């Protein structure tokens, strides 16, 4: 029976680890690279390493002369790992008690544009969950009126319109009516029959 050597040299293990973690992209370091990086000319931020001192303490002794990146909190990547409930605010985060951080499935921001409306509040005028509700409570008087032109198919004012533009599900009968109305409008404007392209 052959014996297998169990002890290995530390240098061999480190070189194997480095080989396995090697970047698939080539990295070139020239003598003038630090100068380019300090002037902000070098490369994309993702190719410049983060300064270890700045990452650990939030301060770098080299300041602007440092060749590495000093990301501000807004520049740091926020990972939302497979978040499935992007329309719901985390009720634990609202209380300051969420322990999942970026791994949480729910929103950790109070962005009214991303949140769904509370259907119970819309129907009854109040909500049983109160301030802990995961949905937005929109008062009836604060809603913009529906834009009739947009509902018919087209609003000339576009984003400058002061009324609400909501998408509806397709209804083939109403769609054909809109097409007929638009065709009639083209005929009236141009004085010609047929489609205007």
TrEMBL record:
Subcellular location field: Nucleus
Any single Pfam family the record assigns to this protein: zf-CCCH
Gene Ontology terms: cellular component: nucleus
Main location: nucleus
One GO BP: mRNA 3'-end processing
Entry superkingdom: Eukaryota
GO function terms (MF aspect): RNA binding; zinc ion binding
Zinc finger (C3H1-type): 45-73, 89-111, 112-140, 141-168
C3H1-type domain residues: 45-73, 89-111, 112-140, 141-168
Keywords attached to this entry: Metal-binding, mRNA processing, Nucleus, Repeat, RNA-binding, Zinc, Zinc-finger
PROSITE patterns: ZF_C3H1 (PS50103)
Keyword Lipid biosynthesis: no
Role summary: Component of the cleavage factor I (CF I) involved in pre-mRNA 3'-end processing.
Family: Belongs to the CPSF4/YTH1 family.
PANTHER family recorded: CLEAVAGE AND POLYADENYLATION SPECIFICITY FACTOR SUBUNIT 4, CLEAVAGE AND POLYADENYLATION SPECIFICITY FACTOR SUBUNIT 4-RELATED
Protein name (Swiss-Prot/TrEMBL): mRNA 3'-end-processing protein
Gene source species: Exophiala xenobiotica
């Amino acid at each position: 029976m052959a014996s297998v050597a169990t002890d290995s040299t530390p240098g061999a293990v480190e070189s194997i680890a480095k080989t396995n973690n090697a970047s698939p992209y080539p990295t070139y370091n020239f003598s003038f690279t630090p100068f380019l990086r300090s002037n902000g000319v070098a490369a994309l931020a993702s190719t410049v390493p983060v300064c270890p001192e700045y990452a650990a303490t939030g301060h770098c002794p080299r300041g602007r002369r440092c060749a590495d990146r000093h990301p501000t909190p807004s520049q740091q990547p926020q990972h939302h790992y497979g978040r499935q409930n992007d329309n719901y605010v985390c009720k634990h985060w609202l209380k300051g008690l969420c322990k999942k951080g970026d791994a949480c499935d729910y929103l950790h921001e109070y962005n009214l544009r991303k949140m769904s409306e509370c259907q119970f509040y819309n129907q009854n005028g109040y909500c049983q969950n109160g301030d802990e509700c995961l949905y937005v409570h929109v008062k009836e008087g604060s809603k913009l009126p529906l834009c009739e032109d947009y509902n018919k198919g087209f609003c000339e004012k576009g984003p400058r319109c002061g009324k609400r533009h909501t998408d509806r599900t397709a209804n083939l009968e109403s769609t054909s009516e809109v097409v007929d109305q638009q065709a009639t409008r083209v005929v009236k404007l141009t004085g010609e029959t047929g489609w205007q392209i």
